[in-house]
Amino acid sequence: MRFPCSVASAEDASEPAGTSGFLASGYRRGMREYSGSVFLADCPARLAIEIIADKWTAVVLFALSRGPCRHGELVDLIGGISRKVLTQTLRRLQGYGLVDRHAEAGKIQYALTDLGRTLVKPIGALTEWAHEHGAAVVGFQESATD
């Protein structure tokens, strides 16, 4: 199966303007797929980045990885998120098919779908990266403001 962000051959590809050969180096070596293709609008990787790039998405998904939660429980668990923003985030995640909203006995709970559970591991990897490199990022930011 060919994804929309791949090319048939190196001859089909032209080097993106301003890349100085960096991103398109795979094309010049005759690779069939272009690793820099996440910049194309119809690339599945770009959709994934769009989904998790929101400030609260990864946090909400990770919170729901513990199990189903009610809205108020999520607010308490996450901390720092307003009820309005949580509602917007949950609706967006429902729209992507990552979260289900269940009403049982008048109580509404949110839970990850099977598709939503597939993002728990990648979000865990980002969390690990933040633990390992977060201090270096903060240090760089502080030194840049001096």
Write out the CATH superfamily name of the domain at 43-144. Answer: Winged helix-like DNA-binding domain superfamily/Winged helix DNA-binding domain
Q: What distance separates the N and C termini?
A: 51 Å
> Number of helical segments?
7
Largest sheet: 3 strands, antiparallel
Structural class: mainly alpha
How would the global form be characterised? globular
Give the total of beta strands: 3
Report strand %: 5-15%
Please give the CATH architecture of the domain at 43-144.
Orthogonal Bundle
CATH class of the domain at 43-144: Mainly Alpha
Say what the CATH topology of the domain at 43-144 is: Arc Repressor Mutant, subunit A
Average pLDDT figure: 79
User: What spatial order of strands do you see in the largest sheet?
Assistant: 1-3-2
Pfam families: HxlR
Domain HTH hxlR-type: 43-138
InterPro entries: ArsR-like_HTH, HTH_HxlR, WH-like_DNA-bd_sf, WH_DNA-bd_sf
GO molecular function: DNA binding
Q: Keywords, please?
A:
single chain, Arc Repressor Mutant, subunit A, HTH_HxlR, transcription, 7 helices, three-stranded antiparallel β-sheet, WH-like_DNA-bd_sf, mainly alpha, Transcriptional regulator, HxlR family, 146 residues
